[in-house]
Specification:
CATH topology of the largest domain: Rossmann fold
Mean pLDDT: 92
Helix content: 40-55%
CATH architecture of the largest domain: 3-Layer(aba) Sandwich
CATH superfamily of the largest domain: Thiamin diphosphate (ThDP)-binding fold, Pyr/PP domains
Largest sheet: 5 strands, parallel
Number of strands: 7
Shape: globular
Strand order of the largest sheet: 1-2-3-7-6
C-alpha cells in the first residue's frame, strides 16, 4: 500500500524505488532533448520557450564567471576563502528560477547561483568571504537567508520557517500570489548531519511546506558518497514519510521542472519533498582544499563531458534559438561582471570596530550595551582608533 496516495505515487519516485540509477533528465550531455521519461515521471517534460533557454544559458555563464573571478581573487589574497561551485551551475540556476517571489531560501555557503537568481549583488557575497562583514544583506529584501557555515543547520531553520508560513495562512489557499514555500539547500555530506535528519522528522510530522534540495556533488570534502549512504539519497525520504526524486543536476531544464513541481506541492499544502540533484563538484571543496589528493583526474575529465553550460549551448545552437550576437553579448557581459567584481572587491571598506554591536538584537540589551560602552572606552585610549 502506498502511504502517500496515488497522486504522489505517480509524481514522485515510486518508479525509482528499486534503487536503480534512474534520473529525471530532459537534456542529455550531448544537448539532445529527451521527451520519453520513465512511467510516473512524464509530467516533468515541460515546454521551454527560446527566451527561457537563453535566460538559463546567460545565468549559468555569469554565475560561472562569478565563481572564476572569486577563486582568482582568493588566490591573489583578496578573499580569505571561497567555496567553489564549478559544475553545479545548472542545479542552482534551475532551482533558483523555479522560485516565486514569495518563496524563501535557506542556503549553505555555496549557493552563489541561487543568490544570483534572487537578485543579490555578488559583491555582497564577496564581502562575507573577504571578512569585512558577516553577510550584510537583509534576507527580507531577497527572501534569501544569510549563508550558513554550520553544516546542515539551515534545514532546521527552513522547517521552522515553513511551519510559520502555515500558521500565517500562506499555504494551500489556492492564491498563486499568496501561497509560499521554503527551499533548504544542502550537500550530500550534510545529509549525514543530525540537524538535517531532525528537520526531516519535523517537516514530515507537521506537513511543512519545505523542499529539501540536496546538491549531491559526490564528495563531502574528501569523503566519497559511497561512505555516506548505502542507497541513493533521495530514497531516504520515504523512511521519513515524504517523497523523494533524483534529477540530473547538470541538466538545468530537468532541475527547473522537478523543483517547480516540488515547490507547488508544498504551496498547495501537500508537505515536504526531497530533491536530490545528482551532479559533480568539478572544482575544489573550497580554495583551501586540494582535490587531487583524494580523487582521480579521470573522473573529473569524464564529468567535464557532462558540463551543464555546454549542453544548453549545444541545444540552443542546434535548434537556431540564438544567433552569434547573443553569445557574444553574454561573453561581453561576463567580462564586464568580472571587471566589476575585481574592482568592487578591492574597494570594499574595512569594518569599523564598533559595528560588531549593530544588528545583534532588535533592541539593545543592558548587557550588550555595557560591553559596547566598555569597548568604546578601550578604543578611545588609542589615538585615532575610531
Amino acid at each position: 500500500m502506498n502511504p502517500f496516495g496515488p497522486d504522489l505515487a505517480e509524481v514522485f519516485g515510486p518508479s525509482q524505488s528499486d534503487g536503480g540509477p534512474e534520473l529525471v533528465q530532459l537534456l542529455t550531455p550531448e544537448g539532445e532533448r529527451v521527451h520519453h521519461l520513465p512511467p510516473g515521471l512524464e509530467q516533468f517534460d515541460l515546454d521551454f520557450s527560446a527566451e527561457q533557454l537563453r535566460g538559463f544559458y546567460r545565468d549559468m555563464v555569469l554565475v560561472r564567471r562569478l565563481d572564476t573571478e572569486a577563486t582568482a581573487l582568493q588566490r591573489h589574497g583578496e578573499l580569505g576563502i571561497w567555496a567553489q561551485l564549478l559544475g553545479q551551475e545548472a542545479a542552482q540556476v534551475g532551482a533558483g528560477r523555479a522560485l516565486r517571489p514569495q518563496d524563501f531560501v535557506f542556503p549553505t555557503y555555496r549557493e552563489h547561483g541561487v543568490a544570483w537568481c534572487r537578485g543579490l549583488d555578488p559583491l555582497k557575497l564577496l564581502g562575507l568571504f573577504r571578512g569585512v562583514d558577516h553577510g550584510n544583506w537583509d534576507p527580507a529584501d531577497y527572501n534569501f537567508g544569510l549563508y550558513t557555515i554550520v553544516i546542515g543547520a539551515q534545514c532546521l531553520h527552513a522547517t521552522g520557517y515553513a511551519m510559520g508560513m502555515q500558521r500565517d495562512g500562506v499555504v494551500g489557499t489556492g492564491d498563486p500570489d499568496r501561497d509560499a514555500a521554503v527551499v533548504a539547500h544542502f550537500g550530500d555530506g550534510a545529509s549525514s548531519q543530525g540537524d538535517v535528519n531532525e528537520a526531516f522528522i519535523f517537516a514530515a510530522s507537521y506537513n511543512a511546506p519545505v523542499v529539501f534540495f540536496c546538491q549531491n556533488n559526490q564528495w563531502a570534502i574528501s569523503e566519497p558518497i559511497e561512505r555516506q549512504s548505502r542507497i541513493p539519497l533521495y530514497q531516504r525520504a520515504l523512511g521519513f514519510g515524504f517523497p523523494g526524486v533524483r534529477v540530473d543536476g547538470n541538466d538545468v531544464l530537468a532541475t527547473y521542472a522537478v523543483t517547480q513541481a516540488a515547490l507547488q506541492r508544498a504551496r498547495d499544502g501537500q508537505g515536504p519533498t526531497f530533491v536530490e540533484a545528482y551532479t559533480y563538484r568539478m572544482g575544489a571543496h573550497t580554495t583551501t582544499d586540494d582535490p587531487t589528493r583524494y580523487r582521480l583526474s579521470g573522473d573529473v575529465e569524464s564529468w567535464k563531458l557532462k558540463d551543464p553550460i555546454a549542453r544548453v549551448e549545444a541545444y540552443v545552437k542546434r535548434n537556431g534559438l540564438a544567433d552569434a550576437d547573443f553569445f557574444a553579448d553574454v561573453a561581453a557581459e561576463a567580462d564586464e561582471l568580472g571587471a566589476t567584481l575585481r574592482e568592487g572587491c578591492k574597494a570594499l571598506p574595512d569594518p569599523q570596530p564598533m559595528s560588531m554591536f549593530d544588528n545583534v538584537y532588535a533592541e539593545m540589551t543592558d548587557e550588550l550595551g555595557a560591553q559596547r560602552d566598555g569597548f568604546a572606552a578601550y578604543l578611545d585610549s588609542f589615538e585615532g582608533a575610531r
